[in-house]
Amino acid sequence: MNKYVKWGIVTVAVAGLATVLGIRTFTPQVNEEIKEKPVAAKGKQSRDLNVKAIVLEETEISDEFFVSGSILPDEEVDLSFETSGKITDIFFKEGTHVSEGDLLAKINDAPLQAELKKLKSQLKLYTDRLYRQNALLEIEAVSQEAFQEAETNLATLQAEIDKVTANIELTELRAPFDGIIGLRQVSQGTYASPTTAVAKLTKTNPLKIDFAVPERYAGTLKAGTPLTFTVEGDLKEKNAEIYAVDSHVNSETRTFGVRALYDNSDGRLYPGRYVSVALTTQTFEKTLAIPSQAIVSEMGIDKVFLYKSGKAVPVEIKKGVRTESLVQVIDGLSVGDTVITTGTMQLRTGQKVILDNVNK
Fold first, then answer.
1. What gap in Å lies between CA 7 and CA 188, rounded to an integer?
2. What is the mean pLDDT, run by run of 10 residues, along the chain of 360 residues?
């Protein structure tokens, strides 16, 4: 065997071996895990969904809403004198209750008192003169003009006395109403003018509850409507009653103002505090209501899913008033319907469901 025959045999053998190896390398291998995994049954889109539901019964629901507000005093004023002068006396104690008409402070009135004394000393003289002129007139001893002059002089003197008396009253600072007087802003000896604030007087019984409500309630709230409110640090509800509503809706906030009165006879509340107000505009005694999470809204349409024969059936509804957790249904449902309340976003028409719990 010559060397050419020998090389030919080797070449054929190598080529055959390469062919065998290539076939084995590029032949897809069967994935044993895929082979053993069972194929899902055709037509089984999803498993039955476990849900909860309620059986509808007639109930009572109120159109109630909550807003924030503030406490205002029934009356409040910055006290000041109506004239100028040096303060000679201060008669009130800060933070105490004063009554209407109480003398709170006094401005020096010595010049006015002296003038009043002078005028009063002339009063008897002018009175006696008029009496004598009247007696003489009866016997026609004096003219009518002389009598009228004496009468005018007495009237003029009396007017001057009244004027000085009024000016003396302006030097006295008196309480215009019952209330609590605040912190003093002046001291004895201060020269006061009508622009000088002496103290603040606040009437705290009753108190005003001031708040604003959405414009959709305009016309529904009126004087006499009751409400409740709470203050920070005291969760006990307190009762008040609306006494006035604003005459127009605020065009910027789309709200209108409301004020109520609260009997603060115990004096525990103070003006300026924040309050949370709860108002009920109307109550429906026999109506249908469902949890808000049971409602599905799509393209402006509200619907719920009813449980019927083990399947979810959608029904379009019309909503009424809403509370924190319930929504009134005024059309689309009837007493005895079983409304699905959980898993509503996963439900589809005709989907099989399993009831885990049914509340009445």
1. 135
2. 52 52 45 41 62 92 89 96 96 95 96 95 89 83 84 93 96 96 95 96 96 88 92 91 92 93 93 93 87 90 93 93 87 93 90 84
Q: Quickly count: other Cβ atoms within 10 Å of residue 356's Cβ.
A: 11
Q: Which residues contact 99 (CB under 8 A, 6 or more apart)?
A: 175, 178
What residue segments make up the domains of the chain, in order of their start?
50-61+285-359, 66-74+203-283, 79-192
For 242-276, b/e burial (b = at least 16 CB within 10 A) is bbebeeebeeeeebbbbbbebebeeeebebeeebb
- As its CATH architecture, domain 79-192 has Beta Barrel (2.40)
**What is the CATH code for 50-61+285-359?**
2.40.420.20
Do residues 92 and 166 lie in contact, with contact meaning Cβ atoms separated by under 8 Å? no
Structure-block tokens of residue 28: 């897809």
| Tokens encoding 57 | 């019964």
Do 110 and 88 touch, CB atoms closer than 8 A?
Answer: no
Residue whose entry in the numeric block shows the structure tokens 């009997």: 263
Confirm whether pTM is higher than 0.70: no
What does 79-141 look like in DSSP terms, one character per residue?
E--SS-EEEEEE---TT-EE-TT-EEEEE--HHHHHHHHHHHHHHHHHHHHHHHHHHHHHTTS
The architecture (CATH level 2) of 66-74+203-283 comes to Beta Barrel (2.40)
Residue tagged 């008033």 (tokens): 321
Length of the chain: 360
